[in-house]
Every structure is written in structure tokens, then in C-alpha cells.
Amino acid sequence: MKLKLKNISNLDKLFHVINQCDDAVELNLPEGGSVNLKSKLSQYFSMATVFSNGDIQEMDLTTHNPKDAERIFLYMLQGC
Known about the structure:
By secondary structure, the protein is of the alpha+beta class. It has a single domain (2-77), classed as Histidine-containing Protein, Chain: A. The protein has three helices and four strands. The chain has a four-stranded antiparallel sheet with strand order 1-4-2-3. The protein is globular and about 30 Å long. The two termini are 19 Å apart. The mean pLDDT is 87. It comes from Candidatus Copromonas faecavium (nom. illeg.). This is Polya polymerase.
């Protein structure tokens, strides 16, 4: 399932939710391709490069498990 997240200010909480997911959660890159955000290395890389300004205006994720999409959706409802 494709998800578009907006105005993310708490990356630690987002990664905590992603780590609880059962299957891969992929960040869709603007240049094409994707990065598995369940990988700790990918999380550190993402934090250091893509999200260096602190707040994320918009990001596209792909989940492969409906329960994982529900977890991320609930995170967004609770105020990311």
C-alpha cells in the first residue's frame, strides 16, 4: 500500500513505529527506487542525508502488509 506522509517532525517516533511493522516499509525516492526503512543502516543514512533539516514536508512510503499501513496511519492520526 502506498502512503503519503506530510509534516513529520518526530523522526524517532516514526522509526519506532516502522520498527514495529512486520514487513518491509520502503521510502520511495524522488529519483526512483526505494530504501527499506526497517534497516538500521537505512534509518541512519536517511536521518543524516535526506532529512537533515529536521522536519519532513512530505514523504512517500510503501508497505506490503495492511497491518503495517494501519500502524503508520494511526501514527499520523496521533500527530507526527
